[in-house]
Amino acid sequence: MTEIEGVREPSIADAVIPLVTLVVLIASSLLLFGLAALDGPLQVALVLCAMVAALIALKNGHPWEEIQASGQRALSSITSAVFILLAVGALIGTWNLSGTIPTLVYYGIQVLSPTWYYAASALICGIVAMSIGSSWTTAGTIGVGLVGIAALLGVSPGITAGAVISGAYLGDKLSPLSETTVLTAQLVKVDLYHHIRRQAWTSVPAFGIAFVLMLMLGLVWGPAPTDAGDTGVELTALGDIYWITPLNLLPLVLLVFLSIRKTPASLALAAAALTAGVLGVFLQYDVARAFVNEPGLNPVLTGIQAVWQAMATGFSMESGLADVDALLSRGGMDSMLLTLWLIIGAVTFGTLLEEFGLVRRLIDPMIRLAKGTGRLFLVVFGTAFGLNVVAGDQYIALVLPAKVYRAEFAKRGLAPSNLSRLTADSGTVTSPLVPWNSCGAFMGAVLGVPTIVYLPFCFFNIASPLLSVIYGFTGFTIEKVDPASSEPVER
């Protein structure tokens, strides 16, 4: 941003006021509305916070045109997220219409045991995410099916959502196909595969901790003996409603193929959604006809209307079984509108804080106070996680610390790979733990489990940044830079 005559540097009070406003308004919305705060009150709180940040920028001499341009840049930064969210909403609708999700649930119930269900969910999502490089796509497809199976098996959807997110972010961090992994390596100027190897030192032990805890929860906090395996009615209902066949899984195969071919996520998801809709009209015509519920309509128009409606407003079913209806009656682009509203408010607020120097005003004193390596690591973690909270977007939480702390790491003889691993552990992994963050809002929306419900069970997402900070204090796996050769030397 160019220097403008008459513009004043922000004071500490300028930087603190928006954060205090955020805390007060979010706490108030949660106290007054509980989980229903996500249905509008939280969004209003974030928009008001953005207005406070804008007023402070005006007070410091920035013209309104500059503030407006900053807001426009905030919205342009989430364009891809908007289309991904809309595509996922359409995909969930058509995958229920076509029988893709019901088929995953039908087979999954017969294969997965409630005792080790949570651990298996984490492992499955980890493998899928590592293959396709996307935590969002993994959660929005496989994750939706696993949470649906959980409800029918009598195990906790909240714990299952935590397992899904743990596995999805493990794969996202260690996949060379992941855009956040590639971005982090590029920002800090580290070779991509060296960055992934360094991340394994925190990611693999963190996932091991998560896997063991999930196994323990399955043994201790599984379904009651009378509920375990009591799914015959639901299986019969799914078999009666749909023609259960492996052909229903073709949209999933297409999505994996397109993801491996590095097709943009929104295009891959939209293609999988449309394919499922067309396939569903042929394989599940009776379901499509019942969904449209217009007996006089010809088959072609019935199919078009079924696909269009499933993509727009989601699929709905009235089978007479509450669990089955809750599983199937979901999706549609309109189901993502509250989430988009949340993301727009959060990212606009975060961008204003960043571009008008309010965040940096708080960071600079912390750098001066961080005398040792451990304290520096703790400050970087606090900055990245704090940005996930106040900025509402994982990309801001990745980009800003990478820019701000890169020179400080070099000055202290710390290899750039330390910073790349730390920012990924602190920025990417913690993003789904914040309800109004774009990642937290997305996960809550697609999995149907509020963020504050699944948060305690995201063991990987909690353990990974903690291990990174512990390594900073102990010196374990910390790479130093040899001033003579500029090559990292592991300690």
Characterize the biggest β-sheet. 2 strands, antiparallel
The number of domains is: 2
**Strands across the major sheet, in which order?**
1-2
Could you spell the SSE succession in H and E letters? HHHHHHHHHHHHHHHHHHHHHHHHEE
> What is the gyration radius calculated from CA atoms?
24 Å
> What is the end-to-end distance?
40 Å
Beta-strand percent range = under 5%
Instruction: Give the structural class.
Output: mainly alpha
Summary, kept brief:
By secondary structure, the protein is an all-alpha fold. It is 73% helix and 1% strand. Strands 1-2 form a two-stranded antiparallel ribbon.
Explain the overall architecture:
It is a single chain. The protein is mainly α and 491 residues long. The chain folds into two domains: 1-62 and 337-369, no CATH class; 80-335, no CATH class. It is 73% helix and 1% strand. It has 24 helices and two strands. It has helices at 12-33, 41-59, 64-77, 79-98, 100-111, 117-132, 135-153, 157-174, 179-188, 192-220, 232-241, 250-260, 265-283, 285-292, 299-313, 322-328, 337-355, 358-369, 373-390, 394-411, 416-428, 438-447, 451-454, 459-474; strands spanning 479-481, 488-490. A two-stranded antiparallel ribbon has the order 1-2. Helix 10 (192-220) crosses helix 24, helix 12 (250-260) runs antiparallel to helix 13 and helix 14 (285-292) crosses helix 15. The longest helix is centred in the middle third of the chain and has 29 residues, at 192-220. The radius of gyration is 24 Å and the shape is globular. Belongs to the NhaC Na(+)/H(+) (TC 2.A.35) antiporter family. This is Na+/H+ antiporter NhaC. InterPro entries: Na/H_antiport_NhaC, Na/H_Antiport_NhaC-like_C, NhaC_Na-H+_Antiporter.
